[in-house]
Amino acid sequence: MSTNPDALVVRDHNTLFKGPEYQEQRERKKQFEAGSSPAEVARVAEWTRSWEYREKNFARKDLSVNPLKACQPLGAVLAALGFAGTLPLVHGSQGCTSYFRGHLSRHFKEPVPTVSSSMTEDSAVFGGLNNLIEALGTAVHVYKPDMVAVSTTCMAEVIGDDLQNFIANARTKGAISETIPVPYAHTPSFVGSHVLGYDNMLRGILSYLTEGKKGASNGTVNIVPGFDPYVGNIRELKRLLTVLGVKHVVLGDHSDSLDSPATGEYHMYPGGTPLAVAADSINATATVFLQSFGSKRTREIVGGWAGETVTVNPPIGIGNTDVFVTEIARVAGVGVPDEITAERGRLLDALTDSHAYLHGKRVAIAGDPDFVTGMLGFLLELGMEPIHVLATNGDETWANQTRELLAASPFGRQATVWPGKDGWHLRSLVHTEPVDLIVGSTHLKHLAREANVPLFRAGFPIFDRHHLHRFPIYGYTGGLALLTQLVNLFLDELDRNAPDHSFDIVR
């Protein structure tokens, strides 16, 4: 065993690369790079923060820089993980599948069981039929799922692989039985985003499971959260519905799949909506969607069921949660108990306590369309002023509805809304029209550091902070958690920048 005390010190890259050997290596590399001088780099960097560069930046059409979205199959994998005993199978290359697993694992800090059909160059030429048949047979034999949910990547879509036909071939050849459910969705990565992929896969699963199951009403209210990166949200929704006394089912419940306890035993398929319960969802009294733009295709099939269909904004903040609770109570025919009214009152009281530190703060926000819509409602309630509102995967319909939401508040009238723009567009916006806060994912931390403003991490993905996904941002309780994080972020900044005479004990 080494007696050198440094041998026991594990250095991260913050300190490791400050060592003399790394500094020397960095200097030696410069002679081969033909790089510009530090002064020239600084000059160009400053120019890229100007209005002149902003106009050039917004004029580009055929290049995307730091798009704030992931691709369809990633969302399809998350949708599959919301159903009990379900194994996601990605028909494509191993590298693509590793990306989806890694992306979700880094956000949720959990293992993500997903298998691949391992397509390679020959599959790209001759088709992936044999790959998918072998993958289905191996997956069912080795991992013994109750259901396999198949999605596709670019490679399979470019060559036109027909999933319905391929899965039928797998049954004919005896690779899988006739009884195991194998829903599927075509999820090409080169169009849409992770939100669309989730929607496509959820539609595929519900279409498959509910076929031929129409019967008498079961008195249940279906909840469709859509692509939700917060397991705490799903648990909070179930708690609220239980307090309301509403018989309910969450269609796509990944709260246990991606937040399972450490008991010493590994369970490959923890939690999830039971398949029989999902099959009976066609007989619900009502289905409530918590995403307008992220559940369009699933709403198409649910709209053909007998029960009422309701769509609300994500229940973030007081107003959005009021609408959610009111609509649930209406469709279920129940009253709102005092316990929930008290939760609402506590959030109102907390807003009163903290509003002085949040009122009038200028905000840039970016993320998935429905998340941005929900968060905007809360920010406006706080008296904060959105300036830049951006969604890479947002369309003009979303933009127009968002503009209406902003125009309805005196705090939203300075805002500009940017559908289809990316993180590099947002950089130009923030440098030319500065803000006090950026709200969004980990991918915005470089911009926040460059602009010297705090980043409030929210949405997907969050790689560089731990456990935020475990706590809800939905409901009155979630609103209180959001408020707590938000106001304390500003108080930390206030203390960090305070002169000695204003370094107060009480805030």
Automatic annotation (TrEMBL):
Gene Ontology, cellular component aspect: molybdenum-iron nitrogenase complex
Organism superkingdom: Bacteria
Enzyme class: oxidoreductase
EC number(s) reported in the record: 1.18.6.1
GO molecular function: ATP binding; iron-sulfur cluster binding; metal ion binding; nitrogenase activity
The Nitrogenase molybdenum-iron protein beta chain N-terminal domain, residue ranges: 1-57
Family the UniProt entry places it in: Belongs to the NifD/NifK/NifE/NifN family.
PANTHER family to which the protein is assigned, alphabetical: LIGHT-INDEPENDENT PROTOCHLOROPHYLLIDE REDUCTASE SUBUNIT B
Keyword entries, A-Z: ATP-binding, Iron, Iron-sulfur, Metal-binding, Nitrogen fixation, Nucleotide-binding, Oxidoreductase
Function: This molybdenum-iron protein is part of the nitrogenase complex that catalyzes the key enzymatic reactions in nitrogen fixation.
Cofactor(s) this protein cannot do without: [8Fe-7S] cluster
Coiled-coil annotated spans: none
Cross-referenced Pfam families: DUF3364, Oxidored_nitro
Nitrogenase/oxidoreductase component domain mapped to chain residues: 71-490
Subunit (UniProt): Tetramer of two alpha and two beta chains. Forms complex with the iron protein (nitrogenase component 2).
Catalytic activity: N2 + 8 reduced [2Fe-2S]-[ferredoxin] + 16 ATP + 16 H2O = H2 + 8 oxidized [2Fe-2S]-[ferredoxin] + 2 NH4(+) + 16 ADP + 16 phosphate + 6 H(+)
Name by which UniProt lists this protein: Nitrogenase molybdenum-iron protein beta chain
Organism field: Candidatus Protofrankia datiscae
InterPro entries linked to this entry: ChlB/BchB/BchZ, Nase/OxRdtase_comp1, Nase_comp1_CS, Nase_Mo-Fe_CF_bsu, Nase_Mo-Fe_CF_bsu_N
